[in-house]
Specification:
The protein is an alpha+beta fold and 533 residues long. It has 19 helices and 13 strands. Helix 5 packs antiparallel against helix 9. It starts with 11 loop residues before the first helix and ends with a strand. 45% of the residues are buried. The chain binds protoporphyrin IX containing FE (HEM).
Length: 533
């Protein structure tokens, strides 16, 4: 499904044809096995004019929290309901796999955690999740800080040059591109101890990573999976390039895996076992996976795992930082409040693991950004067996029976902006999470209650009883949630410690496009001015 916003002057005949085809299919499918479920009769042209999730939102308001979207040769069930989301993600999680998403990602991530079938997933999750323990995160804060400081230093140099050459006190930068480089450097070092150095240079591997991300985006936003056609991978130029890019990254990862296996040392294993993490030269996840499991780790599986984390952890974090500056630039009083917290916790110093935990307002900014711009905006599942979805909060008491093979879109975007669960849902208000909101009138939904997750680093899906899913929920919840949260907190804090940020143009001029994540069409162009200290 193409979700990218395109020009509105799409030729009328093509749109009419598509609309007719869509209506026909809607009618054909309306008597289908999903029984009395409401059907969204949107025109396919809706999908051309703007990102898909905007239309999914309008249909949610019109048809309710569970509806069927008949589109192309398939029907999708769109869920915007915390009770149904809780069922699909947690209570009956193993009745579902990743469906369409796995089809798209498998050629890139193989049997990595995100697309993995349930058997592989169970095995690998058990091995990988322990790698993200507290001491690893503590070692990572140093990497987040080192990499963010390099970015800030680059900005300071650019500003100096601008002042010297043109007498200007501000620089203009595409912060989306800068955050993308920063997130790539961090994920490379944190996951497999590879220094992409992309903040300061270009390399064939960096180009290949971007090429692969671009193709993943293309595949998730294109109607027809033509790349599955025999010979397409040899004939279609972009598919040939994709294969070349994939080979460059795979060769690089294979080299790193080989090296990690060859340099496995018992002293390092002892340090790992004694949890002497900060004294390890290489604290990466790859080192952990190889050292703790010895030589029995399957190279192909390890490569799939690393590739998955490279992609899962890169664009998501870059997007959070991008939308954070977009929202803060429009809310200068909140930016000042954030800077006041940074000044009082860090002063002009560097973040440490303990200090990062004290940056509470910055963390709330990050989660509020994830509420408004969830990454990804949709979670995708396919039922492996027939199932009965529970009645949602809007009185569908009996729920709906769904057959095996039903594709489900859980619209995190709709949940996060639902007028039924949030006051002023479209406003940027990080403070909202400080107010406890009990539920008295929505049967089956337990409301917001921090006591359900004592000591949680952030307002999570348990606290919100699945009305808020910043990192998904249930067994397939993001394995890197704390990594990502701390990374974003450090990067944002170090930027705001030194700079005031303004948008270069109007907020309306920033065009949003979606693939796997929400990003901009032409960059997040900002003006940076040194803060007076
Ligand atoms: C899964 C969001 C950063 C690794 C997920 C899921 C979400 C998510 C929503 C669940 C997908 C689903 O249920 O279909 C995010 C966001 C991030 C982020 C918003 C940044 C702000 C990271 C990082 C890593 C990572 C930094 C690794 C270092 C993964 C993996 C999975 C996953 C491996 C699959 C987990 C499984 O199926 O067991 N992420 N993620 N993510 N994420 Fe993240």
């Amino acid at each position: 499904i193409r979700c990218q916003s395109t020009s509105t002057d799409e030729p009328k005949t093509r749109r009419n044809l598509l609309d007719n085809a869509s209506n026909l299919l809607t009618n054909l499918l309306s008597g289908g096995s999903l029984g009395s479920m409401p059907i969204a009769e949107g025109a396919v042209s809706d999908l051309f004019d703007r990102p898909l999730f905007f239309s999914l939102y309008d249909w949610f308001i019109e048809h309710g929290s569970v509806y069927k979207l008949a589109f192309g040769p398939k029907a999708f069930v769109v869920v915007s309901d915390p009770i149904v989301a809780r069922h699909v993600l947690r209570e009956n999680a193993f009745c579902y796999d990743k469906g369409v998403l796995a089809d798209i990602l498998e050629p890139i991530m193989g049997k990595g955690l995100i697309p993995a079938d349930l058997d592989t997933w169970k095995q690998r999750r058990r091995v990988i999740a322990p790698g993200f323990h507290a001491l690893y995160l503590e070692a990572m804060v140093k990497i987040f800080t080192d990499c963010s400081e390099k970015t800030i230093l680059k900005f300071e140099k650019l500003l100096q040059e601008e002042t010297l050459n043109r007498g200007r006190k501000t620089i203009e930068l595409d912060l989306e591109a800068e955050f993308s480089s920063l997130a790539l450097d961090i994920i490379g070092l944190g996951v497999f101890n590879y220094d992409f150095g992309s903040v300061t240079k270009e390399s064939p591997v960096i180009k290949a990573v971007y090429g692969t991300l671009f193709e993943a985006e293309h595949r998730s936003t294109f109607y027809i999976p033509y790349w599955k056609v025999p010979l397409a991978r040899w004939i279609v130029p972009r598919q040939r390039k994709f294969r070349t890019d994939l080979k460059v990254i795979n060769d690089c990862l294979d080299g790193l895996i080989r090296n990690a296996k060859e340099t496995r040392q018992e002293t390092d294993v002892e340090k790992l076992q004694q949890r002497d993490y900060l004294n390890l030269k290489d604290a990466s996840l790859l080192r952990f996976l190889v050292d703790m499991r010895g030589a029995d780790v399957d190279d192909r599986q390890l490569r799939d795992d690393l590739m998955t984390m490279l992609i899962a952890g890169h664009e998501t974090t870059a997007a959070v930082l991008t939308w954070a500056v977009f929202l803060l630039a429009q809310n200068p009083s909140k930016m000042k409040k954030a800077q006041a917290e940074i000044d009082s916790v860090l002063g002009q110093g560097r973040p440490t693991f303990e200090l990062v935990k004290k940056l509470e307002y910055i963390r709330l900014i990050v989660v509020e950004v994830l509420r408004l711009y969830p990454q990804p905006p949709l979670l995708i599942r396919r039922s492996l067996r027939s199932d009965v979805l529970p009645g949602g909060y809007r009185g569908d008491k009996d729920g709906y029976k769904i057959p095996a093979g039903t594709d489900i879109f859980l619209s995190v975007y709709n949940l996060h902006r639902s007028p039924y669960f949030w006051d002023r849902p479209n406003e940027f208000e990080p403070e909202r999470f400080l107010v406890q909101k009990k539920n008295e009138d929505i049967e089956g939904w337990a409301g917001f209650d921090p006591s359900r997750s004592p000591g949680a680093l952030y307002p999570n899906e348990i606290i919100a009883d699945f009305a808020f899913l910043p990192f998904g929920g249930g067994p397939r919840k993001c394995v890197g949630d704390q990594f990502a949260l701390m990374e974003s907190t450090v990067a944002l804090a170090l930027l705001l410690q030194k700079f005031d940020v303004e948008l270069k143009g109007s907020p309306e001029s920033v065009e949003l496009v979606t693939g796997a994540t929400m990003h901009t069409k032409n960059g997040m162009w900002c003006k940076l001015k040194k803060r007076l200290t």
